[in-house]
Amino acid sequence: GDWFRWRETKLPWSQWTERAESLRGQVYQFTGVVRRITVEHPSDEQAARFDLEQYYRCEIDTNGGGPAVVYALKAPAEWKLDQPLEVRGGARAIFVKLAGAAPDAIEPVFVAERIAWYPDTVLGHLGMDVGLFAGVADRTPLSIDDTECFYELLAAVERANTRELMNLTREETVEHPRYPVAPLFNEPEKHHGELLALSGTARRIVEIQVEPGDFTKALGIERYYEIDFFAPQSQGNPITYCVRELPRGVERGENLSVDLRIAGFFFKVWSYRLGEKDGKAQFQLAPMIVGREPTILVVPPADTGFSTIVMVLLVVGMIGVAAGVWWLNRGDRQARRKEATQREPEVRFDNVEQ
Q1: CA-CA distance, 243 to 223, in Å (whole number)?
Q2: pLDDT per position as a tens digit, 46-64
Q3: Which residues contact 134 (CB under 8 A, 6 or more apart)?
Q4: pLDDT digit string (tens) for 130-171?
Q5: CA–CA dist 156, 265 (Å, integer)
Q6: ∠ at Cα 70 (64, 74), nearest 5°?
Q7: 239, 294 in Cβ contact below 8 A?
Q8: Which of 285, 272, 230, 233 is nearest to 255 (CA)?
Q9: pTM, two decimal places
Q10: 28: number of CA atoms within 13 Å, CB side?
């Protein structure tokens, strides 16, 4: 929360040379293109004194400004070290000093806990720092270590368009779904942040009120909804689906049966307590998916052979009735014509002799 309360989101490039000393210690949050990252090793004395084995030096071209240098304790493991890079990144960092020999070649120097990473993916384009997943532990309850990643993910899906997410995750067929659930259980660390979609049934929907604070306030999160969801691919195992909104007509409650299609980003396999059995706590593992809003799934009635036969019989019956009516009307007309030919000649009074 302190980071969000103290941060500035615009670097004061026009004031660096004039106010550098007065700006020292100020927290800035910025993004840009990372050009190179290298590993730095302190001396043995410094490493022992500060319990610091290594740190990273990151060269970044800031958006809307010039180059900067960020020293950080953590960096994405996927980045290649000491090689030219061109990846979207950033930092929430403390300004330390200016570097550079001439006024037109100055570089502000920052210190940060970590370097952010915004890859060329749906989640990266939503402004989510996917590097936060590195600190998420699977098969454990939600903890303080998950907080920043979880709420940043909730904030990212708020910037998403539900229809676009659904279009990006169209299932191929109902019988052969595109997104299996088993890998989420077996190797969750390989799927953090993946966009996926599932169709199934919601059994429970509850509203979670978020404890107010500087962090959640800055992200605009006051509440979200937790859905216990079951899909055919999960083989009876629950899936936890957390969303910012509920569609109109979907009510909260227990023991529900609401058919939904969900689209979202896989967060982690989490563990939650079910209760106790024989004096021992019982826990359930479930994949947690974070999305903006589910879609109500309307399943058309199945077209069975019986219904087809009934429909054919109805059509044949209607044709038969129409034919019968036509035949009766035809016979009636023929009888009237025959009766008319057997009548005596009509007597007209204008032909009678006087």
Answers
A1: 9
A2: 999 999 999 999 999 999 8
A3: 74, 76, 77
A4: 999 999 999 999 999 999 999 999 999 999 888 888 888 775
A5: 10
A6: 125
A7: no
A8: 230
A9: 0.78
A10: 24
Q: How far apart are CA 184 and CA 21, in angstroms?
A: 50
Q: What is the pLDDT of residues 289-333, one digit of tens each?
A: 999 999 997 744 444 454 555 454 555 566 665 555 555 555 555
Q: Report DSSP state, residue 9.
A: S
Structure tokens at 74: 């953590």
Q: Which of 313, 204, 215 is CA-nearest to residue 260? A: 204
Handedness of CA 286, 287, 291, 297 (dihedral sign): negative
Question: Which has the closest alpha carbon to 184: 260, 270, 273, 124?
Answer: 270
Distance CA 89, CA 105 (A): 22
- Cα Rg, the chain, nearest whole Å: 36
| Rounded Cα gap, residues 350 and 198, in angstroms | 93
More confident residue, 326 or 88: 88
